[in-house]
Amino acid sequence: MAETAILALGGNALIREDQRGTLEEQYANALAMARSVRSLIRKGWNVVIVHGNGPQVGNLAIQHEGSTDLVPALPLFTLGAMTQGQLGSLICLALNEVCKREIAGAVSIVTHVEVDPADPALSHPTKPIGPFFDRVEAAALQSKRAWTMAEDSGRGYRRVVPSPRPMAPIEATAISTLVDLGYIVVAGGGGGIPVVRSADGSYRGVDAVIDKDFAAERIADAVGAQALVMVTGVSAVRLHFGTSREQAVTDMAASVARRHLTDGQFPPGSMGPKVEAAIEFVESPGRISAITTPELVYATLDEPAGVIEGPRGTRILPDPVPALVK
Asked: Could you list the active site residues?
């Protein structure tokens, strides 16, 4: 039976730092991702794609709140559902264009993810969404729209919203069924729509955005995946980033990665969630995690002594590191 890889694609991978976020720009970026997926399919992997939506859901919120004199604004969790449809369509179209008859098809599932209503993160906004603003613009928006604004990676200020830890994807069985039928599945868009369970067993949405790396780990665990890949804008994880001691890492044992995480090598607003999700995933045997760019996904998941030469991303492996892991 084919093994399954979960690819966690950042929303910033579809709208890059130097782009405005036009449909043409996002589709071109989706095509690059689709070519990476095709390489994995040709090697025999099943693939599930989980994507972020930070830039897109923030942009959509601005559009909604700027039109309240004409139509009512919708809650944040509904905007998350809307961007799941938007980006799911974009990614599926790119997959069909690149993979054609090599796949049974590409299907996007609007995915709900349960969160804990007592999670303290629901009352402490930390997750950046939308575009960057300068200090003056951020102060004006905070006053006018009652947004919480925070500096993001030294590049400016962004709106931040609550980001609870995901517990479980509601549609896990549907995702697994489609994977078994040979479909590429796009699921957990934007980390999934955050919902809490009511006393009667029903669910209701909450205004938050789930981190897509943590959601991808929960989906990977729920569907029994063997690989979890965080697709990002850097080729590999780097230690001592931004200093004269900076170095890229290829293979790293989970215990070593956790030590570096504790030491502050991986900031919470950038590489931290990726490394933490990777560590959690490989705590079960027979699994591998990777962090790299779309172009290096295939090379990074190849055997350590495989035939592929050239650069690779970072692989986070269980303890002890086995001699050969797919």
From this structure: 11-12, 127, 212, 274
